[in-house]
Amino acid sequence: MVCALAKVAGEDVSGAQPSAQQLLGVPDTTSAFPGIDQLGGGCRIDPTVSVMRFGERSDVVQLGDAVSLYAQTRLVLGDVTADPCVGIRIGARTIVNVGAYLSGEGGLEIGEDVLIGPHAKLLSAGHAIDEGDVVIARNRITRARIVVEDGAWIGAGAMVLEGVRIGRGAVVAAGALVRQDVPAGMVAAGMPATLVRARRLDAYGGSDASQASQASGWRGVWRRWLGRR
Question: pLDDT for 62-120, tens place per residue?
Fold first, then answer.
């Protein structure tokens, strides 16, 4: 499914343009959508996508070229004047699959060529629980930016909590609950998520020397990450 989406989300790498009959279940391209301030060229947004926001700002939600938002995706920002960090930025050729929930209340930055799996949740805000009123809904909103760097993959049903950074080319396994940063090129899985392994080096190409250097760097990152737990 992911490979099929990637073929139609942006430029066709084969050079042949898909026909209309090949695009069943794929959103049409659009140059404007309610609640989205800036759209790049060739964006595909399903009509069932919803944006929850109020207040006046014109730079809150920005999509790069050839971004795809599939059915029932929800973008949540709330009061866009509540804090300067409020916003969602999605880089070129990123695909957000069906039923994803993207919170920009604490800031959400998604890079280029990112895959967001079906029903994944990126939650950049929450509620204070150890102060104020016993009724949680009366307490202040907590906010911390989530960053997903270029080429990462957030698997189906995964949940990423506020303040987390997902590194370039990192993988978050389906159903994972991510509370800590995931370094570039690493695979995280579980509830709560832990680092499972580094991606295979041949995924990155390069010389044997550069691959060995990369492997050494990842081992160091892994040891430091485990040392904090």
Answer: 999 999 999 999 999 999 999 999 999 999 999 999 999 999 999 999 999 999 999 99
CA distance linking residue 126 with residue 121, whole number of Å: 13
Q: State pLDDT tens for residues 148-161.
A: 999 999 999 999 99
Distance CA 182, CA 193 (A): 9
**pTM metric for this prediction:** 0.81
220 vs 39, 141, 213, 227, CA distance in Å? 40, 36, 11, 11
Burial of 209 per CB tally in 10 Å (0-12, 13-18, 19+): exposed
Query: What structural domains does the chain harbor?
Result: 2-166 (2.160.10)
d(CA 161, CA 126): 9
The CA distance from 34 to 16, in Å, is 31
Burial of 199 (0-12, 13-18, 19+ CB in 10 A): middle
